[in-house]
Inverse folding.
């Protein structure tokens, strides 16, 4: 099992559990595909060989992010799980119609089975959904 918060002392990464986690994040991405057209294009890095400039997050998006994180029990920090979700997200974005857009994924510390996105490019997935995918 991937998630150590489910009571396991050491996470075990089997191919089946990685596939289930990837499938859950893929389902999340498929459900959020419609949000890509509403992302403010000023937040996307400039195309081309130059290094992308740091993404500026508008103050209203920062406030909304903090409000959502607080409403769902805070951000859940598990380095191995965050790395797995980031890798799956990177692969999905690379295969999408808009690989130039930047998304920020936050794992929420909630047992609820839920995932959603904001037009600013913030994606949220609860640990409950990831546990179900496990």
């Amino acid at each position: 099992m991937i998630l150590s918060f489910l009571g396991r002392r050491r996470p075990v990464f089997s191919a089946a559990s990685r596939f289930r986690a990837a499938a859950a994040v893929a389902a999340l991405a498929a459900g959020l595909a419609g949000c890509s057209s509403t992302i403010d294009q000023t937040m996307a890095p400039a195309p081309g060989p130059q290094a992308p400039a740091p993404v500026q997050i508008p103050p209203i998006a920062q406030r909304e992010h903090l409000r959502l994180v607080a409403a769902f029990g805070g951000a859940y920090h598990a380095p191995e799980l965050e790395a797995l979700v980031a890798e799956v997200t990177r692969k999905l974005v690379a295969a999408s119609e808009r690989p130039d857009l930047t998304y920020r994924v936050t794992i929420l510390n909630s047992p609820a089975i839920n995932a959603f996105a904001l037009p600013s490019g913030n994606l949220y997935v609860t640990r409950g959904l990831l546990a179900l995918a496990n």
Remarks:
- The longest helix spans residues 15-31.
- Confidence is low (pLDDT under 50) at residues 1-11, 36-46, 48-53.
- The longest strand covers residues 104-108.
- The radius of gyration is 15 Å.
